[in-house]
Design a protein that fits this description.
By secondary structure, this protein is α/β, with parallel strands linked by helices. Helices cover 28% and strands 26% of the residues. The chain has helices spanning 10-19, 51-60, 72-75, 78-82, 97-100, 102-111, 125-135, 158-170, and strands at 2-7, 27-32, 42-43, 65-68, 87-88, 119-122, 139-143, 152-155, 181-185, 196-199, 202-205, 210-216, 220-230. The longest helix is centred in the last third of the chain and has 13 residues, at 158-170. The radius of gyration is 20 Å and the shape is globular.
């Protein structure tokens, strides 16, 4: 069996490391990979901006399974490009909108009555700031698009809110991802993640986990794409479990 892992971070290194322990797997390719993956797999110098080239490589080299680590590969449509050519562990480009657009995800939750924090979506920073003033501080500002975990900021004052909105929507520090923002009420507490695999109308529940996004110890510093996670999440009780 041949497996491709898509991404360049520690997550992809961990996935490749675990795959290498399976005797059924002959070859592991990581796109584009890093210094760690180079020691246990074959790095291929192609990134998410070359998604069609990645798909061609996978087809030509008869790779059986594709594991996208970074969501951008799914958003770019790797699942759709490969279709029946390989088993891609992830959703279609259309379904990936739930990940690539927070506005889309919140509208989806509202439509299907899935509990979620009170929110508003804005392309005008002044209207966004007025909404924050209405719901009160602290509040959560989220860039609508993908930002590698750096597009979510908790603000505690009008000054902080104004600065973040200016950075995202005026100075375009996150590019297109920050031109629209989602403002949410702040919900205090620990979070846990459920990962559910879905295929042909059936689903399987994977173990829970708890991700830690703050850059520094003691839950301090800016958000990141994730500094690490552990599983199972200890806050999930039998009553909360699926």
């Amino acid at each position: 069996m041949k497996v491709a892992v898509l991404g360049a971070g520690a997550r992809e290194h961990a996935i490749a490391w675990k795959l290498r322990q399976d005797s059924r797997i002959k070859d592991i390719y990581v796109f584009p990979g890093n210094a760690g993956t180079a020691q246990i797999a074959t790095n291929v110098d192609l990134n998410a901006n070359q998604i069609e080239d990645i798909a061609d490589f996978i087809i030509k080299n008869n790779i059986n399974v594709v594991i996208p680590g970074q969501e951008i590969y799914l958003v770019k449509g790797i699942k759709d490009l490969l279709k029946d050519k390989a088993l891609v562990f992830g959703p279609s480009q259309k379904a990936s909108n739930l990940e690539s657009s927070k506005d889309f995800a919140k509208a989806f939750m509202s439509k299907y009555e899935i509990p979620t924090a009170n929110y508003g979506s804005f392309t005008d920073p002044k209207k966004a700031l007025n909404f924050i003033e209405d719901i009160g501080y602290p509040a959560v500002i989220k860039a609508d698009g993908l930002a590698s975990g750096k597009g979510v900021v908790i603000v505690f004052s009008r000054q902080e809110a104004s600065q973040v909105l200016e950075d995202f929507m005026v100075k375009n520090k996150l590019g297109e991802s920050g031109k629209k923002v989602v403002i949410e009420e702040f919900l205090k507490g620990e979070e846990a993640s459920y990962i559910i695999a879905i295929k042909d109308g059936k689903f399987g529940v994977l173990p829970t986990s708890q991700d830690h996004k703050r850059l520094k110890d003691n839950d301090e510093g800016p958000n990141t794409g994730g500094m690490g996670a552990y599983s199972p999440a200890p806050i999930i009780t039998k009553e909360l479990d699926l």
